[in-house]
Design brief:
nine-stranded mixed β-sheet; 298 residues; single chain; Rossmann fold; alpha/beta; 36% helix
């Protein structure tokens, strides 16, 4: 079959698509992108949050309700009147306040006033979990410590475990804090599985926020973490500015970090880091670490 070539004047004569067709196609494409990302948000919420039945009751002596116009937040408040230092603990995905009480008591015995909150939909906190609602719970907790309990912002440290590193980074970027403890955390929630950003929604973008966090930062991660790979936690550490310290725990998994450390070493590591830290960038800070430190177990 002979090949047919169009001359330039013939190409110019070809019919052009009407502008209304091009505009319609553009709008349709935009709507498709919005629908795909809306569906992605719904799927991500289901994947990120797995609240179970509350493991504590309304009669627990540590329980206090933090007031917020959008809905009260259930919290455990364990004060130590003799100390000026407070720790806000933001827990992981499939746990609530009752599950983490032994850890909270450990920090209290170390000498810190300890506050932990249940995200909406977890424990006795009403509502449904979402990224925005988790941030609201964290903000409510911070206000409780600084406004109601009158802790200076520079005396409040934040510890986030797993998905709790999302609201922990959020707070440390937006508010002055003494120190940030980033335990078994990720670059962002979806990238725990995809490794790279595939969609517009990128819940809990720790890798972006950590660059703006000025306070001293302690990173803890188990080398055998099968849920949030060790490499992701170290990537966030690399993106962070000094002062910072990375502690890898050999053989430790995601929820068993403390078991890879000598008895009491976990609480001591976090507590001593907080005591040495300061919220003012020009004051004395923990010795910067340019390479990861490895904590050896038994």
């Amino acid at each position: 079959m002979p090949m047919v070539f169009c001359m330039p004047h013939q190409i110019a004569a070809l019919p052009l698509l009407p502008l209304r067709v091009i505009a319609f196609a553009g709008v349709a494409l935009l709507l498709l992108v919005l629908v795909v990302n809306l569906v992605a948000v719904c799927i991500l919420n289901r994947c990120m949050f797995h609240p179970g039945q509350a493991t504590y009751t309304a009669h627990d002596p540590n329980l206090t309700l933090l007031s917020d116009p959008a809905g009260d937040i259930a919290a455990f408040w364990i004060p130590r009147p003799e100390t000026r230092l407070a720790l806000l603990y933001l827990h992981g995905n499939a746990e609530d306040l009752g599950d983490i009480l032994p850890v909270l008591n450990g920090f209290s015995e170390y000498g810190l006033s300890v506050l932990a909150v249940d995200y909406p939909g977890y424990g006795l906190s009403p509502g449904k979990p979402s990224e925005r609602e988790v941030y609201r719970a964290a903000e409510t907790a911070y206000r409780f410590l600084t406004d109601e309990k009158h802790f200076a912002p520079g005396d409040v440290s934040v510890l986030g475990f797993s998905i709790g590193t999302g609201p922990a980074c959020y707070l440390a970027e937006r508010h002055p804090v003494r120190a940030l403890v980033f335990q078994s955390g990720f670059t962002s929630a979806p990238r725990t599985r995809t490794r790279i950003r595939l969609l517009l929604p990128d819940p809990f973008p720790n890798i972006a926020r950590i660059r703006n966090v000025k306070c001293p930062k302690l990173f803890l991660h188990g080398t055998d973490d099968k849920i949030v790979p060790y490499a992701l936690g170290f990537k966030v550490y690399e993106a962070a500015k000094e002062p910072k310290l990375f502690t890898g725990v050999p053989g430790a998994g995601h929820t068993r970090l403390q078991e890879g450390m000598p008895p009491g070493a976990y609480v001591d590591a976090v507590g001593s880091f907080i005591r040495r830290a300061t919220s003012t960038p020009d004051a004395q800070n923990p010795t910067p670490q340019n390479r990861p430190e490895t904590c050896h177990g038994h």
